[in-house]
Design brief:
Structural class: alpha/beta
Number of strands: 13
Shape: globular
Strand content: 15-25%
Number of helices: 9
Strand order of the largest sheet: 6-13-11-9-7-8
Length: about 300
């Protein structure tokens, strides 16, 4: 069997590549010019079991022709393709243009689901993007040295309701919460950018209050005993969609997420167990623990 790999950006495609090659599968990579890391070429030069074909994001017909020539009957999508690309100057070929014109909406599920159907009609089955990475899925429970504190648990409970509602409309899968109030909602910009935006908003409060803050974290000294206090530390809540298609757009957490949280002053992260991939799992959890960040994987529906 030769596996087709539709490679977006980030490390996801490389993890799939490593896992597939470890199982002895040859891999035909469809590398997207606007997204895929050029490191993929280096990998192919050192491994005869990997072939790389570059194509533009709009070349659906070329993708199908490439996989047919390679003898691919099963393929995996791995790595992000920025949703904002639908507004770019990329010109779709006739097949993709027809697909776009027939869509009621152009959210992620509709767009990628339609591409998956076209591939299936051409004899190319799109399989789950977690097929080769099951060990990286978050297991239920507290994953770090520190569990969420009472305030963070309240934020998670509130954030889950908001995030699942937003995800149900396929807008985004992440919300950032402080004091049981929604500070930021992910849309096309992605998880890390939403976290960064939440951090900027909270820092702007400090700039607006040159004197004593009117709302404080309990670890701060309250200059006025009896004054109500609100937590400003951020909790990040990331969920899968209600009808998550594991073939694409699977929730992913990586080192860049931890970097974004540290930059924003976020202290807690909640993900869905069994539906979220943790890249560099051991190093990620170790670093989060070292930085006193709590990460918890909650069961679906909790």
């Amino acid at each position: 069997m030769k596996l087709g790999l539709i490679a977006g950006n980030g490390r996801f495609p490389f993890l799939i590549l490593d896992a597939a090659r470890a199982q002895g599968l040859q891999v035909a990579v469809a590398a997207i010019q606007q997204e895929t890391d050029a490191e993929i070429i280096v990998r192919a030069k050192t491994d005869a079991g990997i072939t790389v074909h570059w194509l533009s994001l709009g070349e659906l017909s070329k993708l199908i022709d490439t996989f047919h020539k390679e003898g691919v009957t099963q393929a995996v999508m791995a790595g992000q393709v920025k949703h904002k690309q639908i507004f770019s100057s990329i010109r779709p070929d006739w097949r993709l243009a027809k697909l776009l014109l027939n869509l009621r909406t152009r959210n992620t599920d509709m767009l990628l689901g339609a591409v998956a159907k076209v591939l299936g009609d051409e004899g190319i089955e799109l399989i789950s993007s977690t097929t080769f990475l099951e060990p990286l899925l978050a297991q239920e429970g507290v994953l770090t040295a520190r569990a969420p504190d009472e305030e963070e648990r309240k934020n998670i409970e509130y954030g889950l309701g908001v995030a699942r509602a937003v995800a149900g409309f396929d807008i985004g899968q992440t919300v950032v919460v402080a004091a049981q109030a929604c500070v930021a909602v992910e849309a096309m910009e992605g998880t890390d950018a939403a976290i960064e935006r939440a951090g900027l908003l909270m820092r702007s409060l400090e700039e607006d209050e040159p004197g004593e803050a009117s709302t404080l974290h309990p670890s701060d000294k309250d200059p006025s005993p009896g004054t109500p206090t609100l937590h400003r530390h951020l909790t990040v809540v990331k969920v899968a969609k209600p009808q998550q298609d594991m073939r694409f757009d699977v929730p992913v957490i990586g080192m860049r997420t931890i970097d974004a949280m540290l930059g924003a002053g976020a202290t807690c992260l909640s993900v869905e167990a069994g539906r979220t991939l943790l890249f560099d799992r051991d190093a990620l959890l170790r670093r989060a623990s070292d930085e006193n960040i709590a990460i918890v994987a909650v069961p679906r529906g909790q």
